TrEMBL record:
It comes from Clostridium putrefaciens. This is Coenzyme PQQ synthesis protein D (PqqD). It comes from the Bacteria.
Length: 91
């Protein structure tokens, strides 16, 4: 399970032909993501709390592995585009 702890930093998204640039206006970090990754990022960000089943569903819908989704979450967290708590039980 993943819970979004903080998205209080502003993020600007710029669309290019086959990828998107994300620019964090607080840290001035810029990264690029492909269309599949940006879709998964937006789902996770706006959902707030995602169960493992939901993450598996996002992976399946986008034809990627669950490992790819977790790698994306880790990448976004390392680059300060998400702050998350993983593996917690929210009953």
């Amino acid at each position: 399970m993943v819970k979004i702890v903080s998205t209080d930093f502003p993020i600007r998204v710029v669309e290019k032909t086959d990828f998107f640039y994300l620019f964090n206006t607080k840290t001035f970090e810029t990264i690029s993501l492909d269309k599949i990754s940006i879709r998964i990022f937006e789902k996770i960000k706006y959902k707030g709390v995602c169960t493992n089943d939901e993450l598996n569903q996002y992976a399946k819908i986008n034809n990627v592995s669950e490992k790819d989704v977790w790698a994306l979450i880790d990448f976004l967290q390392i680059n300060q585009f998400l702050s998350v708590s993983k593996g917690l039980n929210y009953d």
